[in-house]
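Key result, reporting period 2: structure in, sequence out.
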């Protein structure tokens, strides 16, 4: 084509002479709509048809169009005044495309910005029926769920394995509307009153001058706040344990933290705390490993969750409650149930399992689902009500408010991921991003124009819909005050109980974590103040950290009551756990016997563990596809390593040395034992096997269900 030719092209004619870059030639069909993509349009008060087509979602037809549905022939070149000329303002397609792009990002969550999510379902076993009128807790009821896991402090692009609390937020799409349980993986919180939330978050976020450090608690402002708030010590010691470094979202407990009130159909109430217990057990990473992962695979948890679900290894959690009588003082065994810095040990109030959740479907689109999902502790259903926990009360305000900024207006419940799987017949109208086309003329009650619709539901009726029950709880007669009860004043006894319930290995990790974190604090007074808090928790803990910091141990300033240790607080037990989704690295080279490798892989596969073949080059080696090369392999991806090749390659030596330090099971075929020797790994150390390949594989598969070779740390 010549430079001065008229370049207008008609649809159907070749757009330009530039070669097509391998685009598919057969247009793909529309994606199947998700079950929850039936819009609220049909749920108008009178049920009248609306003008908006049901399937007006996205990706219809075969041809590229503008947002207005006008077919386009070219989306790769701006409209220019000649090939070398300026771009024309009249290029409406260019402007529409760039303008939309400019506005693609929405404000990230002010906390919990980094997250990953999955769809699933919950099956109730009926054990909660006597306590609550909630329909989704009746025996055998299956309810769709969507769960978003998150870190708290980091931005959307931060690493998954930061030392941090994890969010565990569950949306239950019940037949009585949406119920959200917006919990964490740690059963207590930093503060007792919501009014301090902006303060703790400002202190934990990067320093406002340089905006560093990202997703870290090892800095002055965090420890300044914590050391000035003795109430934060309990949550903080959990953060210093391996609980703050989950091995996987699939291996994390979840807690509702606050005490909630259940009410049954007779109006009888109990107080409860909610728990999620992972069927795979609760497991952590070790700190050096977590730091390496942050550089080598910042998407570690996100990848792990999606891969496991894609592979059919669906994670499951039992949903459980601790039940307490709804007494006037709201104390149980002397513990104030309204104080969110306190837990109730399982030994005092055992967990009653009330159902099980399975996550079995990955989101189709991160932004549409994981980013736009809007949780709110005020999304309650009949049978579940709140208590006066002052932290919970503040949250009831905050979550609705934040969605208005984040999702651009009050109609976020109409975004597909947020739509209830129940009839919606509210009298909310208009507003930004209104998606429904409401019919009728009378969005008010009572009315005589729209047939009186919608009708109020019954509070305790046998017929029709069960209405939400605001429990007629007596209100305390007292003076207006900015103060809290004296029972909130004990800030140390449960921090001490947690520390003393841990195994010596876990205690050692806690000591090292405090030493690391406070070692990165510049201000001497902050370190001294935190040591003062630590000595009130445990003198041995304080002495270790003080020595690491080169400071003196202060005298205890509080008379802290001793409580019995609670075994349920420790993660290191003698139990064995399923190994679904675990990865076993197999180091080979071109000399490795193909039949040996094939039978090892078969044995690993049969155990439900994923074999990861690591060879000097990509493609195929020893008759097997290679998943990682010596260049791309990393210890952090592996739960155990089998060495079938004799090598002194420094990358494999480093991989083995790290796996050894991180307490991972390692085995070598007898003829590859020298590889362990080069990595300075003693064959007599715990969790090391040198045997023929079949036995070596068996040894690893026997060690994996214990999660780690803890004996290596206590040896
Ligand atoms: Fe949150 N929290 N929070 N929080 N929270 C948010 O809501 C807030 C608290 C938790 O995956 C925000 O939609 C206040 C406790 C999770 O989308 C915001 C207070 C617990 C998630 C907010 C708390 C949590 C959030 C940010 C003190 C455990 C992520 C974006 C009173 C029980 C949910 C958003 C998701 C998110 C406020 C304390 C858990 C700003 C004011 C305690 C898991 O509304």
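The corresponding designed sequence is given below.
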């Amino acid at each position: 084509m010549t430079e001065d030719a008229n370049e207008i092209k008609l649809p159907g004619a070749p757009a330009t002479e530039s070669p097509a870059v391998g685009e598919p030639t057969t247009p793909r069909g529309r994606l199947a709509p998700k079950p929850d993509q039936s819009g609220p349009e049909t749920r108008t008060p009178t049920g009248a048809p609306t003008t908006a087509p049901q399937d007006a979602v996205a990706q219809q037809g075969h041809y590229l169009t503008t947002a207005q549905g006008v077919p386009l022939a070219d989306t790769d070149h701006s409209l220019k005044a000649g090939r070398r000329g300026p771009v024309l303002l009249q290029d409406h397609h260019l402007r529409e495309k760039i303008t939309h792009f400019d506005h693609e990002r929405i404000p990230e969550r002010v906390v919990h910005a980094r997250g990953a999510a999955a769809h699933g379902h919950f099956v109730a076993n009926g054990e909660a029926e006597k306590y609550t009128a909630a329909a989704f807790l009746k025996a055998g009821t299956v309810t769709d769920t969507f769960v978003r896991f998150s870190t708290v402090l980091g931005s959307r692009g931060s690493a998954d394995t930061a030392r941090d609390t994890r969010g565990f937020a569950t949306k239950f799409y019940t037949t009585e509307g949406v119920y959200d349980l917006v919990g964490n993986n740690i059963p207590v919180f930093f503060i007792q009153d919501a009014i301090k939330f902006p303060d703790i978050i400002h202190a934990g976020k990067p320093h406002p001058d340089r905006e560093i450090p990202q997703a870290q608690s090892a800095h002055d402002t965090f420890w300044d706040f914590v050391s000035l708030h003795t109430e934060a010590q309990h949550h903080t010691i959990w953060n210093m344990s391996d609980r703050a470094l989950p091995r996987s979202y699939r291996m994390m407990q979840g807690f509702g933290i606050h005490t909630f009130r259940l009410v049954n159909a007779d109006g009888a109430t109990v107080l409860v705390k909610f728990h999620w217990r992972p069927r795979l057990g609760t497991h952590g990473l070790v700190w050096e490993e977590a730091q390496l992962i942050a550089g080598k695979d910042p998407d570690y948890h996100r990848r792990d969750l999606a891969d496991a679900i894609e592979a059919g290894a669906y994670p499951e959690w039992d949903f459980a409650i601790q039940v307490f009588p709804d007494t006037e003082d709201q104390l149980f065994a002397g513990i104030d149930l309204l104080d969110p810095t306190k837990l109730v040990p399982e030994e005092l109030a055992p967990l009653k399992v009330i159902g099980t959740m399975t996550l079995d479907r990955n989101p189709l689109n991160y932004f549409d689902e994981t980013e736009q999902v809007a949780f709110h502790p005020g999304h309650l259903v009949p049978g579940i009500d709140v208590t006066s926990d002052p932290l919970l009360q503040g949250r009831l305000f905050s979550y609705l408010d934040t969605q208005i900024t984040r999702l651009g207006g009050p109609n976020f419940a109409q975004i597909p991921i947020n739509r209830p799987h129940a009839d919606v017949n509210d009298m909310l109208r208009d507003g930004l991003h209104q998606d429904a086309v409401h019919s009728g003329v009378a969005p008010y009650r009572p009315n005589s124009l729209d047939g009186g619709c919608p009708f109020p539901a019954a509070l305790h009726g046998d017929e029709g819909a069960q209405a939400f029950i605001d429990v007629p709880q007596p209100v305390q007669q007292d003076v207006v005050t900015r103060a809290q009860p004296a029972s909130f004043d004990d800030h140390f006894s449960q921090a001490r109980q947690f520390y003393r319930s841990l195994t010596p290995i876990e205690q050692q990790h806690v000591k090292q974590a405090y030493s690391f974190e406070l070692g990165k604090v510049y201000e001497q007074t902050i370190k001294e103040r935190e040591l003062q808090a630590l000595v009130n928790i445990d003198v041995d803990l304080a002495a270790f950290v003080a020595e690491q910091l080169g400071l003196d141990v202060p005298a205890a300033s509080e008379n802290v009551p001793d409580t019995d240790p609670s075994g349920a607080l420790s993660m290191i037990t003698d139990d064995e756990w399923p190994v679904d989704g675990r990865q076993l690295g197999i180091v080979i080279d071109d000399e490795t016997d193909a039949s040996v490798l094939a039978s090892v892989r078969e044995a690993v596969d049969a155990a439900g563990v994923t074999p990861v073949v690591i060879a000097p080059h990509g493609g195929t080696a020893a008759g097997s596809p290679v998943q990682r090369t010596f260049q791309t392999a990393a210890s952090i991806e592996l739960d155990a390593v089998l060495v079938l090749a004799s090598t002194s390659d420094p990358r494999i030596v480093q991989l083995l040395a790290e796996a050894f330090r991180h307490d991972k099971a390692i085995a070598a075929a007898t003829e590859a034992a020298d590889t362990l020797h080069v990595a300075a790994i003693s064959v007599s150390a715990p969790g090391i096997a040198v045997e023929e390949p079949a036995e070596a594989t068996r040894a690893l598969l026997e060690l994996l269900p214990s999660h780690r070779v803890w004996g290596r740390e206590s040896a």
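Confidence is low (pLDDT under 50) at residues 1-21, 27-56. Residues 115-195+247-418 form a domain with the Catalase HpII,  Chain A, domain 1 fold (CATH 2.40.180.10). This case is discussed further under Risks and Mitigation.
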